[in-house]
Amino acid sequence: MSSSGGKKPVPVYLxxxxxxxxxxxxxxxxxxxxxxxGFVAHALARAxxxxxxxxxxxxxxxxxxxxxxxxxxGADEGDLSREVRWYERTREHLAxxxxxxxxxxxxxxxxxxxxxxxxxxxxxxxxxGTRSIFMPEVQAHSSDPKLRLRSPRIARRA
Length: 158
Fold this sequence. Notes:
By secondary structure, this protein is mainly alpha-helical.
């Protein structure tokens, strides 16, 4: 089994996974601006790279090289980089209307919103099927916190 970047990815259906684990994976993928499939692929690639406990009876396994992320061309249906960039550019404007809510962004426009990720994801799946959709939680500021540190002052006696 090869993992070359030139082959088209195949769909993977995850059955029997606890709902809470799937929910967390979807939310984490959305926060990172990638699809659930991309998140699972990277998690699997990392898991495959981890050394297994030494077992003399087990045959040696070949490890696979992780698949690099898709180029930021926007041509790939699963590539959300264009929507992520649009969100970053319009975050302040979106925050005025959708602060604290999750928004579904398709083709650089908000198509739906909800304070609950699961409800929004269900509607998007029902309406658009398995298509990749960027669904971040709208915050007025970047997720990279900026700290303001005050300079210490020396008190002089009079």
